[in-house]
Amino acid sequence: AQLGRWNETAVGFEATCVQERIAKQARMTPEAVALVFGDERISYGELEGRANALAAALRARGVGAEVAVGVCVNRSPELLVSLLGIWKAGGVYVPLDPQYPDERLRYMLEDSAAVLVLTDEAQSRRLSDWGVQTYATQQWPLAPTHATVSAGTTADNLAYIIYTSGSTGRPKG
Q1: What pLDDT, on a 0 to 100 scale, did the predictor assign at position 131?
Q2: Are strands 116-119 and 134-136 parallel, antiparallel or unpaired?
Q3: Domain membership flag for residue 124
Q4: What would the pLDDT profile of 97-151 be if each residue is shown by its tens digit?
Q5: Spatial distance between the Cα atoms of 127 and 150, rounded to a whole number of angstroms
Q6: Which of 18, 94, 110, 163 could form an S-S bond across to 70 if both were Cys, CB 3.0 to 4.6 Å?
Q7: Lowest mean pLDDT, pick from 50-64, 71-85, 150-164
Q8: How far, CA to CA in Å, does 123 sit from each of 34, 82, 128, 130?
Q9: What is the CATH classification number for the domain harbouring 105?
């Protein structure tokens, strides 16, 4: 009987999306540090505001529920902002490692049907010859907004497409 009580580890689970949890945390503790990257520290309020601004810009570019958006940036605060912005707009995150060969990136973009790629200037130049619409970090809205953007997606919507290594042939998403 004692052992049974100790093993009672069930915990209630709230089926909310990551972007909703971060928005909630930003409302509760806007000044708390959410992200540390080198010497840079970004608060929950700043992260939420930047993600909202990007989400609004993505919505204006046609991103909505389950629309694939590639992300081809190196690890940086912009990487996290892009994830949250895509999800707030309702989109699907497709990670594209800038170190991948062109052939692999082209395949992943075609296969995922990504309508847009968030990237930096160098990668934007690389991808522009492929007929892919890019949106470089230098063009993103600079001013954070606290006007919440919500696409009305739920935990049942597609959130990301991650590709296999392709060791058996073509990568699979």
Answers
A1: 82
A2: parallel
A3: yes
A4: 999 999 999 999 999 999 999 998 888 888 888 888 999 988 888 777 877 777 7
A5: 29
A6: 94
A7: 150-164
A8: 27, 15, 8, 12
A9: 3.40.50.980
């993103």: which residue's tokens? 140
Residues contacting 135, CB < 8 A, separation 6+? 57, 58, 61, 116, 117, 118, 119
**Model pLDDT, residue 107:** 93
Model confidence pLDDT, tens digit, residues 22-44: 999 999 999 999 999 999 999 99
Cβ atoms of 89 and 115 within 8 Å: the answer is no
Distance CA 171, CA 19 (A): 28
Domain hosting residue 57, numbered range: 13-139
Q: Classify residue 130: in a domain, yes or no.
A: yes
CB 33 within 8 A of CB 43: yes
Number of domains in the chain: 1
CB-based contact 66:157 (threshold 8 Å): yes
